[in-house]
Records
---
Amino acid sequence: MASQSEPDYVFKVIIVGDSFVGKTCTLIQRSERYFKKDYSATIGLDFRATDIIIGNSKVKLQIWDTAGQERFRAFVKVYYRDSDGICIMFDKSSRESFDHVDGWIKDIDKEVENKNQIRILVGNKADLKSVVINEEANIKAEKYNMDYVEISAKENYQVDFLFEALAFRLLERGAKLQSDESLKLASREKRFYRDCC
């Protein structure tokens, strides 16, 4: 294992989705441990890094928060290409943001040749009355061969689990896990989703 300050692995992760689905709030909740109630839409890109311990490995995720507005899409697309993982986020209380997931994936597929890129569908705002049921989200995730994770950035519900699951998938993808490492997230309650409201 690396020294205290040095990670064993570094992965670049992008969060995409419509404006105001909670991308920035999720990133701030994970990196700074608070919920930012009032914020402006992200202009271009924002960046945070977070360390996660998986088994005997220290993983650093470099997480890029992208602007959801149409006018920034051409600029943001460049960052898809060399990313190891992508979280495609929608707002569970917004049918429109869920419907736009297909468009986000289409944009990503145009730019990314890395077939090993890990993608996770993320339903945020589980604390609000949902108009998108988990069955629908799971069907869409399966269609694109992704996991689905439901979170609430506001309540800090499963935010850590999201990034732990992503780090686990990235390590698993790279076949970098040692056979003797007990890396089962089952040591925590593995809840990818729950029915809400």
---
Amino acid sequence: MIDLEKVCFAYENEIALRYIDLHIEKGDSVIVQGPNGCGKSTLIKLLNGIIFPSEGEYLYKGHAITEKALKDRKFAKWFHQQMGYVFQNADTQLFCGSVEEEIAFGPVQMGLSEAEVHERTEDCLKLFGIEKLRERPPYHLSGGEKRKVSLACIISLNPEVLILDEPLAGLDEKTQDMLIEFLQNFHKAGKTLITITHNRQLAELLGTRFALMNEDHELNMI
């Protein structure tokens, strides 16, 4: 499903990824671990098509993911619907005037009918228990509430792959438990998870495969 072959990436002259080989099958739950600065967040950006390999190849379902390929609007729309990326800082992801508008934004951009947009929005509000927040501006919410809304926004697109960067960071225990249960159910439904985390409990509860990155920006499956 996801194949990286000898992928390298550098910020100017600073190496971030060094000859990365990574193969992820549909239904895997991959935990990405490693010290700060080893390239984990860069890897996530690359998987989401935000940056592109300077060497090597990235294939998703057999399609080469390149800057040129994602200039095709139809292909880019398909790819970004497949890959759900939940940012570590929810503030960078939320920008609409209300929670309801925020969740509906993605389905509207997909060109879904008004009825389908409404159904997906309502389903996600109920799924995360945030119906009472529907008219609230996202910037007035707590950290946990923002995390729920950012997840609802991604799930409204029904992605095949969900990618998370330290998803439990800054959340209270109740919200952490809710999120862990949701991610376990998402994975049980046959979806693919890729999670960066230093949290051992989360890694043990979610991980079926483990990718360890080192200070030389290399990756090994363990």
---
Amino acid sequence: MFTGIVQGTAEVLSIEEKDHFRTHVVKLPAELLPGLELGASVAHNGCCLTVTAVDGDRVSFDLVKETLRITNLGELQPGDVVNIERAAKFSDEIGGHLMSGHIMTTAEICKIVASENNREIWFKPQDAAQMKYILHKGFVGIDGISLTVGDVSKTKFCVHLIPETLARTTLGAKKLGQRVNIEIDPHTQAIVDTVERVLAQRDAAQVIAATEANIG
């Protein structure tokens, strides 16, 4: 599990391509290295990856076909930078919201409104069906960052970013047309799905009752 509070950024040093598979090596910040072992979970742009090799500050991770398909990690090139978060411990402060590191879809940056002290960025999810889980003032994970949803339309949503977020994460350098990873808040998803299921069952029961009444 993760908290959505990015602990640093890491440069992609090298990428080894194979058929529907790749291994990339990143240079982790020194403060994120203590206790790092093979098999540990580290979020890259919000996507949970497993450590496969450690050579000083050079750490390797494998990316399978599904990860490359669902996330923006398949677009990375050597020299690119990713947001990094080590897996949460039970004693950690939950400054954002609990996140699993499982990306649901990506979203395109479709509008950026910059002002002196903050930035408003609009995102259009690739999978429009995910918009029902993105609610005004709700939580969303964007490239591993826990953020509060601002305005919402039928096809897109925005967040408001303070200078600290822009400075500590990769969002400060993002441009129009670039893709970000999206993780939906699981609690919001559970509530929306439950309400939809209850309403569908109620509507079905009403249809059955009306049919029986007509027959009778």
